[in-house]
Amino acid sequence: MIDIGMHQRIRDLSIAASEGATAKSCNADIPQEVHMGPMNEMVYIVDDDASVGEALSSLLRANGKRVRIFTAGQEFLSFDRQDTAACLILDLRMPGLNGLQVQKAISAQVTIPVIFITGRGDIPSTVTAMKEGAIDFLTKPVDEKALLSCIERALDLDRTHRKKALEHASLLARYQTLTPREQQVLPLLVRGLLNKQAAGELGITEYTVQIHRGHIMRKMEADSFATLVKLASRLNIEQVIAS
User: Fold this and answer.
1) d(CA 198, CA 213)
2) Is the dihedral of CA 221, 224, 228, 233 positive or negative?
3) What is the 3-state secondary structure (H, E, C) of 20-34?
4) CA-CA distance, 48 to 241, in Å (whole number)?
5) What is the Cβ-side half-sphere exposure of residue 230, based on CA atoms within 13 angstroms?
6) pLDDT for 59-79, tens place per residue?
7) In angstroms, what CA-CA distances link 234 with 23, 89, 137, 220, 227?
8) 172 Cβ contact list (under 8 Å, min separation 6)
């Protein structure tokens, strides 16, 4: 369990773990943020109790995590976060915006896995938090192993989400290289229409459809027609056309 009495011991562990790090790996202007561990990960902590935030931060730094501490929900929402894989440890009960309000505000902006911690959990709040996509709901004093496990799961989930988002952005960019006519031909082909049928739908020759089909395959980087169908399905081509 993490408690404030353990804070100095955890801090000592953190210092020991950081031995050998160069001065370049630290940012003197932002003491809350320690550049350790994988550079593509960040753990944000939002808790109005500064001593709790420091205790959690020391534990995480000792386990190779980069950490940034906030003492208010609005402070976190106003912060210009880095474009990296991350997760958020969020206190439920805070002055000003409470944890659930911060979670709701975040979900309207960007996806980030949230782990709630609270000294006085209640079932309605837990249900609301989980429905909004929280990874877990832990009570203080927090079990160290449970917290570290939740963080690893949250970071892994965020990396997966980010990878999928990048893949979708790449796919959409390829689709947008198609000419307007090629964008008309593509949904007809993936619906299973023959070249002749697609030509009839568009009032063009079958040969022209064949030419468009070749260009579409190349631009979409599809090595087979089956692959093209899968790509179009992932792109949700009808929705893209409607937008």
Assistant:
1) 11
2) negative
3) CCCHHHECCCCCCCE
4) 47
5) 7
6) 999 999 999 999 998 999 988
7) 46, 32, 33, 12, 11
8) 235, 240
Read off the tokens for 112. Answer: 């980030």
Is residue 90 a contact partner of residue 75, using CB atoms and an 8 Å limit? no
State the DSSP string of the chain: ---GGGHHHHHHHHHHHTTT--GGGB-TT-TT-B--S-TTEEEEEE-S-HHHHHHHHHHHHHTT--EEEESSHHHHHHS---SSEEEEEEESS-SSS-HHHHHHHHHTT----EEEEESS--HHHHHHHHHTT-SEEEESSPPHHHHHHHHHHHHHHHHHHHHHHHHHHHHHHHHTTS-HHHHHHHHHHHTT--HHHHHHHHTS-HHHHHHHHHHHHHHTT-SSHHHHHHHHHHHTHHHHHH-
Alpha-carbon span 75 to 64, nearest angstrom? 25
Q: Per DSSP, what are the bridge partners of residue 44?
A: 68, 88
Interatomic CA distance for residues 44 and 114, integer angstroms: 10
CA-based torsion, 236, 238, 240, 243: positive or negative: negative
pTM: 0.68
Per residue in 218-241, pLDDT (tens digit) is 999 999 999 999 999 988 865 565
Instruction: Quote the CA–CA distance of 171 and 109 in Å, as a whole number.
Output: 22
